Amino acid sequence: MGIFSRRQTTTVEPPPAAGPGHFAAAPAAPAPGAPTLDPALRALTGQWSIDRPHSRIGFSVRHAMVTTVRGAFTDYDSALYFDGARPSESRAELVIRVASVDTGVEQRDGHLVGKDFFDARRYPEMTFRSTSTVHEGGETFRMTGDLTIRDTTRPVELQLDYLGSVMDPFGYERAGFDGTTTIDRTDWGLVYNQRLDAGGSMVSEKVRLQFDISAIRTV
Question: Can you list the pairs that 135-143 forms with residues at least 24 positions away whose Cβ atoms lie under 8 Å?
Answer without folding.
Answer: 135/34, 135/35, 135/37, 135/87, 135/88, 136/35, 137/35, 138/35, 139/38, 139/41, 139/163, 141/87, 141/90, 143/90, 143/92, 143/179
